[in-house]
Amino acid sequence: MKERVFVTGGAGFIGSHIVEALLQEGYEVTVYDNFSSGRRENLNNIINDIKIIEGDILDYEKLKKSMKGHQYVSHQAAQLEILRCIEDPLIDLRINTIGTLNVLKACVENRISKVINASSACVYGQAQYIPQDENHPTNPNWPYGVSKLATEKYANIYHESYGVSIINLRYSIVYGEREWLGRVLTMFLKRILEDKPLVIFGKGDQLRDFIYVKDLVKFHNLCFGSNKNLGNNVYNVSTGIGVSIKELANIVIEVSGKSTEIVFENVKEGEFSRYMPNRKRIPAELKRMVLDNERAKRDFNWYPATNLKEGIERELSWIAENPSYWRQTDIIHV
């Protein structure tokens, strides 16, 4: 019999890529998603090869019943909007923390042997040094990071109390085909296709670590396929390479082949842009976020295979072929 994997948030950007890769590796996959941000169209190419259950991780009884009969769980469902978590941290707490507690509890009830929990670089807060390894102090600057850090702490308790093997993956900035609209790269790509100038808040010296989604998925699946007793562990999933927002804009321009202007806007944190009226600069903005991935390399012999220029070329080609995908109502500010 094929091993069965239960993927929460499996219709989302990252989740749908995970589902595709798991199928390719011979797993039987169930997608559990409430479709608040996930899309059925993300699964169009594999719709006949998977089971889809429309459900919410806050609905514990349905979650527990739906999970029955699976061996592994990949927990990707989450509230992702940074501005939303700042404005209403209770929503963030309910979905990310209580929702994850429901997942962990259901895993124990269903005797799941291994769980992958999607965490985030946001658990670190402002960098005290870069690249930030897994031992970097955790001092989140946003409620989102607090909710994700709490899930890691609960995961440790569930491992210690019930013996569930749980791997927490701290994602850096994940990009690629099907990415949601709202983060800086997607805004650059959308504007360059519309022949509009690229808008950078401040000097553009903020550093970010961009990991291509299929490289992340490769590591994710290595965790499932490993026979190692991982217990409860934490891994950065990243490139370890810092790229400034100004450098990112120039790469986008180079890849597009257009002679697009870059506009540096002096917009304060928490205020709206004059050039993009629906775009607000996030308060308590991270100055540097570059994650050390040596632990993942050491334990799994995993290396990111896609350089940033190549990955952006793929995402730009994809959105050029799917212009309706990024609708204005879908903006997620992260």
Would you kindly provide a written description of the structure presented here, covering whatever features stand out?
There is one protein chain. It contains 10 helices and 13 strands. By secondary structure, the chain is an alpha/beta fold. It has 2 domains: 4-174 and 211-237, 3-Layer(aba) Sandwich (Rossmann fold), CATH 3.40.50.720; 180-209 and 241-289 and 308-330, Alpha-Beta Complex (UDP-galactose 4-epimerase, domain 1), CATH 3.90.25. Helix 5 links the parallel strand 5 (114-120) and strand 6. The longest helix has 21 residues, at 89-109. The protein is globular and about 55 Å long.
Order of helices and strands: EHEEHEHHEHEEHEEEHEEHEHH
Distance between the amino and carboxyl termini: 40 Å
The top level CATH class name of the largest domain = Alpha Beta
CATH superfamily label of the largest domain = NAD(P)-binding Rossmann-like Domain
Average pLDDT score: 94
**Number of separate domains:** 2
Number of strands: 13
Strand content: 15-25%
Low-confidence stretches: 328-334
